[in-house]
Amino acid sequence: QVNSKQGGSPCEEKQVVLLSPLGRIEISGCEKGVHEIKLPKTSLLPRGAEPSVACEVCEGAEEMLEPLQQCTAWLRAYFCEPASTGTLPLPAFHHPLLQRDSFTRQVLWTLLNDVKFGEAVSYKQLADLAGNSRAARAVGGAMRSNPLPIIIPCHRVIRSSGDSGNYGGGQLMKEWLLCHEKLQKEKLAR
């Protein structure tokens, strides 16, 4: 249960499970917005990063709230038709971390708005973009607390050395996501 920003009554959360190329992605939210996206803990990922047609809601479709519908539509597009994500509306977000004013929120919004599909940014570059060039470590903390991975693309944040760095879904998943985006961006450029 998540309390609303004003400390009001707890949200009535619903959950939906999306079967994706990465495995089962659990999405929770209320009528005000998406609360959290939980990536599967997996060590087996599909070979290559081609778009997949296998991306369907497998649980919770009966009474899906609008933010969850928008979230699953966006994620399905991300995996199956990546070029169309730019034309889809982002779902509303309703996680407490994204409600209150903080450097973490600033970093996550900056990442969402400024680092586009198929791009990567270092922790230091993202700290600069978010307005505090000396906060690369704090950017790492913000990435660890990101409640909406993939939509808020923390997988696009890499080390200055070019190494992919850590990721909540594991390093293999991060590398798969980066490869997926790179391949799709190259296809669009042709």
Automatic annotation (TrEMBL):
Residue ranges of domain Methylguanine DNA methyltransferase ribonuclease-like in the record? 20-91
Cytoplasm found in the keyword field:
no
What's in the keyword line of the UniProt record?
Answer: DNA damage, DNA repair, DNA-binding, Metal-binding, Methyltransferase, Nucleus, Phosphoprotein, Transferase, Zinc
PROSITE patterns reported in the protein's UniProt record: MGMT
A GO term, aspect molecular function: methylated-DNA-[protein]-cysteine S-methyltransferase activity
Superkingdom is: Eukaryota
Give the subcellular location.
Nucleus
CDD domains per UniProt:
ATase (cd06445)
Q: Could you say which EC number(s) this protein's record lists?
A: 2.1.1.63
The processes (GO biological process) annotated in the record are:
DNA repair; methylation
GO cellular component terms attached to this protein's record? nucleoplasm
Necessary cofactors? Zn(2+)
Listed under catalytic activity are: a 6-O-methyl-2'-deoxyguanosine in DNA + L-cysteinyl-[protein] = S-methyl-L-cysteinyl-[protein] + a 2'-deoxyguanosine in DNA; a 4-O-methyl-thymidine in DNA + L-cysteinyl-[protein] = a thymidine in DNA + S-methyl-L-cysteinyl-[protein]
Gene3D superfamilies, A to Z: Methylated DNA-protein cysteine methyltransferase domain (3.30.160.70), Winged helix-like DNA-binding domain superfamily/Winged helix DNA-binding domain (1.10.10.10)
Ranges for the Methylated-DNA-[protein]-cysteine S-methyltransferase DNA binding domain?
Answer: 105-182
The record, for PANTHER family, names: METHYLATED-DNA--PROTEIN-CYSTEINE METHYLTRANSFERASE
Describe the task this protein carries out.
Answer: Involved in the cellular defense against the biological effects of O6-methylguanine (O6-MeG) and O4-methylthymine (O4-MeT) in DNA. Repairs the methylated nucleobase in DNA by stoichiometrically transferring the methyl group to a cysteine residue in the enzyme. This is a suicide reaction: the enzyme is irreversibly inactivated.
Q: Which family does it belong to?
A: Belongs to the MGMT family.
Q: What is this protein called?
A: Methylated-DNA--protein-cysteine methyltransferase
Q: Which organism is it from?
A: Rhodinocichla rosea
